[in-house]
């Protein structure tokens, strides 16, 4: 028996499978022929399939996925919206609180530095536009209160007791325009001047140590002031100054002294509160 190879063995992607074929030779010799089978399409078939793309390398071109569009479920359920919104809102709120805390610390530091300075005498002529630069700066005033034109800022409390902040026009002795002085908290039952101690209505020359204040923003929940009914819910410096015919300058009194009365009776309790 003779073995004839039609082609030599090949390795790689070609599989060789022997096929036994009888032959009609005179020597009664059994001839085994090896045929090859490829695991992949033949080069001829691939070249024909890729002929339209101008490729004759026998290898398939990369698949073009540029026009593929992924299928996305665009339906947002209320629960999905809530689950997505909660962490975003929490992060934003935390960031705002940190920034707010830093701002408040800087404000307290600036306030402490200004309060440590000696009070300055308020000049005769004051430009209201520069007041924000000197807010919380201690100043010294000498003059008299005009108790006939005082107003009350309503809805104030101290230690759980309802009352007002009493704002009184102050006439400086240096000949300057009258200004506004917030003398502090007064109880409701003392709104009538006749019910107050005589020291509250003193016409003596008074020395006031206080802090310059700028205009604060109005809260959304605060009602509007009513000049006609003399109802005041918010310290609008410009509006109050026009009503009382003074310069738009506000000083929060810290101490008030005179030759007759002590500071505890002339000026009421004025406390500084920083908004959070």
Automatic annotation (TrEMBL):
Annotated transmembrane regions: none
Entry keyword annotation includes Transmembrane: yes
Localization, UniProt: Membrane; Mitochondrion inner membrane
Membrane topology: Multi-pass membrane protein
Region feature Disordered, mapped onto this chain: 43-64
Signal peptide limits: none
Pfam families cross-referenced by the UniProt entry: SURF1 (PF02104)
Assigned keywords, A-Z: Membrane, Mitochondrion, Mitochondrion inner membrane, Transmembrane, Transmembrane helix
Gene Ontology biological-process entries: mitochondrial respiratory chain complex IV assembly
Residue ranges, compositional bias (Low complexity): 45-58
Source species, domain of life: Eukaryota
Gene Ontology terms: cellular component: mitochondrial inner membrane; mitochondrion
InterPro entries for this protein: Surf1/Shy1, Surf1/Surf4
Predominant cellular place of this UniProt entry's protein: membrane
PANTHER family noted in UniProt: SURFEIT LOCUS PROTEIN, SURFEIT LOCUS PROTEIN 1
Family: Belongs to the SURF1 family.
Function of the protein: Probably involved in the biogenesis of the COX complex.
Protein known as: SURF1-like protein
Organism: Puccinia graminis f. sp. tritici (strain CRL 75-36-700-3 / race SCCL) (Black stem rust fungus)
């Amino acid at each position: 028996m003779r073995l004839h190879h039609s082609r030599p063995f090949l390795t790689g992607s070609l599989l060789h499978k022997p096929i036994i074929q009888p032959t009609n030779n005179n020597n009664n010799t059994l001839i085994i022929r090896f045929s090859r089978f490829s695991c992949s399409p033949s080069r001829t078939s691939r070249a024909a399939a890729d002929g339209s793309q101008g490729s004759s390398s026998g290898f398939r071109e990369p698949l073009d996925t540029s026009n593929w569009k992924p299928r996305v479920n665009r339906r947002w359920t209320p629960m999905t919206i809530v689950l997505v919104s909660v962490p975003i809102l929490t992060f934003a709120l935390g960031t705002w609180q940190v920034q707010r805390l830093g701002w408040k610390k800087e404000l307290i530091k600036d306030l402490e530095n200004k309060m440590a300075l000696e009070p300055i005498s308020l000049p005769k002529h004051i430009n209201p536009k520069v007041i924000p630069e000197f807010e919380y700066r201690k100043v010294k005033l000498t003059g008299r209160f005009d108790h006939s034109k005082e107003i009350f800022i309503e809805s104030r409390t101290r230690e759980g007791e309802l009352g007002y902040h009493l704002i009184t026009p102050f006439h400086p002795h240096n000949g300057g325009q009258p200004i506004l002085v917030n003398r502090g908290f007064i109880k409701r039952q003392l709104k009538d001047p006749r019910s107050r101690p005589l020291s509250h209505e003193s016409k003596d020359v008074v020395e006031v140590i206080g802090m310059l204040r700028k205009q604060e923003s109005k809260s959304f929940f605060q009602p509007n002031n009513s000049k006609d009914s003399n109802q005041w819910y918010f310290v609008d410096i410009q509006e109050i100054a026009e009503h009382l015919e003074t310069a738009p300058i506000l000083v929060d009194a810290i101490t008030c002294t005179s030759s007759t009365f002590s500071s505890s009776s002339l000026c009421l309790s004025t406390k500084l509160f920083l908004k959070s």
